[in-house]
Design a protein that fits this description.
mainly alpha; 3 helices; 41% helix; extended
Length: 74
């Protein structure tokens, strides 16, 4: 494998680098979203509420649950 790659330093805004028209707006939205997620107190949300929020997003979400039997000792 003799592929040669050129390393190009991008700006600090990936949306600008991709040529998006509203790059500044999209960057601010991503930064605000990340800050909200970092500071969210997820314990305040019920499972139903979190699923409802995920359902309002524009992407597909896959949820996988695994259940295991507990061995009760007395």
């Amino acid at each position: 494998m003799n592929d040669i790659f050129e390393l190009v330093r991008g700006s600090e805004n990936v949306f600008h680098d991709l040529g998006r028209a509203n790059a500044g707006f999209e960057q601010v939205r991503v930064v605000l979203t990340a800050e909200i997620i970092r500071n969210a107190k997820l314990a305040c949300f019920t499972l139903d509420r979190m699923i409802a929020i995920l359902g309002k997003l524009d992407g597909d979400v896959e949820i996988s649950l695994t259940f295991r039997l507990r061995l009760h000792t007395m």
